[in-house]
Every structure is written in C-alpha cells, then in structure tokens.
Amino acid sequence: MTDTTDKNSERFQALRAKDRQIQKELMQVSDKVRARHPFLVKHQNAVGMGIFLVSIAGMILNGVLWMEGIMPAWLVIVLSAFWTSLLHELEHDLIHYMYFRKQPVWHHLMMAGVYLARPLTQNPWIRRYLHLHHHKVSGTETDLEERGITNGEKWDWKRFLMVGDNMLAFYLRAGKYFVVPKKLLKQGKINKTDIKNLRIIGALSFNPVGYICYTIWHGFVLFHLANGIAWALGATIDWPQWLLAQEAWVTATVVILIAPNVLRTFCLHFISSNMHYFGDNTPGIIHEQCQVMNKWYLIPLQLFCFNFGSTHAIHHFVVRDPFYIRHLGEKESHEVLRRHGIRFNDMGTFKRANRLNERAA
Questions:
Q1: Whose CB has fewer CB within 10 Å in the chain, the N or C terminal residue?
Q2: pTM score, two decimals?
Q3: Is 289 within 8 Å of 18 (Cβ atoms)?
C-alpha cells in the first residue's frame, strides 16, 4: 500500500528511535524468559502441536459430554470458547510462521485444523496477508484487518452487532466496501494496484462455510426469539414439520461449534478493535498503534481471547515470540511499556471512536 509518511523528518526519526528503544528492552525481557524456559524454545513445534491437539480434544470431549446429557449446553459453550481462544492464538503464531516453518505439510495441517475448529473466521492463508499488512500500517485507513472488525467506527448499536458477527459486519457496511477504496485512491493514499489487490483479497476472503454457519446461527436465534415472544404473549407458532425436523442437528451444531465461536469472536473483536488506535496515529510508529487493556472488569472478555488485551501490545514490538512466551514475560514487559508512556486502560477510546487523541467528528 502507498505510504505518504515523511520518513526523513526529524520528528519521525525521533519516534522511530523510541520504538527501537522499547523493542530493545522488550527483547531483553523475551531473552530472559527464553533462558528460563529453554524447553519452550527448543521444542516450539511440539509445544504448538500439543496445544493444538489438547484444544481440539477438549472441544470434542465437550460435545460428547453434552450429547450424552452429562454436561449442560451453557458449560459446553463457555469451555469450548476457551479452547477456541487458544486455537486463535495458534493461528496467529502460524501466520507468523512460528510452528513447522521448515515442515510445510505439518504447518498447513495445523492451519487447516485451527480454521475448521473456528469456521466463522476468515481463511487464515488470506488473513496472513492482511495481518502482516496490519503490522506495517496499523491504525491507518488501509489497515483492512482492524477496520474489518470495526476499529475506528463510532460506538452505537450497529457496531455492537458487528463486533461479534462477521456477516453483519459486511452487510451493515456494504456500501463502504465500494465507496472507501475510490475515496482513498482520489486522496492518493492508495493506487490502482492497491485497489486490484483489495478486490482479489475480497474475492478470496469469501468463506462459504462461515456464511453457512452464520445463516444457521441467525436462524437459530430468530427461531427461539420468535418462540419466546409467542410464549410471552400466551400464543404458539405452528412451525412446518420440515423445519422442526431440523431442530436436533441445528441445536447440536450451535452448541458444539457455532455458539462457542460467536462468544469468542465477540470477546476478541471487542478487545482488539478498542485496544488498537485508528486515524490520527503516525503511520509506521509502533508506540502509537495500541494500548494495554487489563482492567479487572475486562476479565470475562479476556478469558475468551486468552488475555489478548494485556499482551497484544507486546507483540507489536516483538513479533518473534509465540503467545505463551509473551504471557510468561507479561509483568516485566508491562514495566517497560509503562516506563515509555504506553497507555494502559485508556477507556476514552470508546468516546473517540478509537482515535489516539482527537474526538471523532
């Protein structure tokens, strides 16, 4: 994508110098963690595969226990949402080639596995392009990954719905997908090649399995909502038999696979879209890209995105570490970030539509 930042200015160089200093100190924390836990470094592939297999097994076990009537549906949804949060972290690490880099068969098998267990998400091979681009242009108008999950939008009922539903996030903003690229081209922020790439990415990003799952989810919610309203009014709905015949497998699919992913998606996107800044940060400057969000009242959300709000800012500075290395060095890393003025729990971001400083118009 086109970068209009003047990288030769004294201000930009000073900001980059600050980034490099933070990176240096965080790398030192990372080195200490790696030295304390050499097994995690030496057997990184095995650790990743172990987490993958345990998470998949956990989801399968939850489903079996529910079908046998041993575990209630709500507990299946909660526990499986946790397992999918681990699988998301693995996908993120895989996007950065942290597991089986030199063994492509195993690498792509893991990519396929984390995708199938989280079918509401974007194709991870396509997301790799968007995510690596996100690291380069985080907080700018061409950061498609974060903008796709509502970063930079004003907070209202529409954003609330879009945060947990990728299908609604597209349809409720369908017009922008056609208008915004032309606007950016006119402003000189992207070129015709960029638009061509965006169209290709958009076409490849189509996820028929995800759309089927979202259709099942929406139908499930509307079906039970209609029944609930009818019950409240003292009435019943005479549903056709062919529809009622689908209830068993639809319910099983929702409880075992779809609802846990809806819960995880909402929690992750809520945290991620609000810990990243958008619109008035300096392009290419890491310490203006995101904050640390770790307030105690965010714990229910953090449980289902594996403490993303507390550790993701570290990743923007030190990309090389698997997620568990970041967590082991979290406390020391936070001391570094605080020392250099990285924001913690800047809840004003909700009023500013995620701007770093200015209030959204």
A1: C
A2: 0.93
A3: no
